[in-house]
Design brief:
Elements (H helix, E strand, L loop, with lengths): L11 E6 L2 H18 L1 E7 L7 E7 L2 E9 L1
């Protein structure tokens, strides 16, 4: 949010592009992540679903593409 010029109270939609293994992990925690992070729409998939802002991160050697947009 900070790099998007947003505040913590702002609601966002997030699309994570991950591999099949991480997709399963995120699905287990989806509702908790949405609630704690103020996310209105949280999509985890292996398909590219672009939004306005994009970031790429690496966690434990696995690439994650994060797309975000203010709602």
């Amino acid at each position: 949010r900070k790099s998007m010029g947003m505040k913590k109270k702002d609601t966002v939609q997030i699309h994570l592009i991950v591999d099949a293994e991480l997709e399963k992990v995120f699905e287990v925690w989806e509702s908790e992540i949405k609630m704690k992070c103020g996310i209105s729409d949280f999509v985890v998939s292996q398909e590219d679903l672009p939004l306005n802002h994009k970031a790429t991160e690496e966690i434990k050697g696995k690439k994650i593409v994060i797309y975000a947009e203010e709602v």
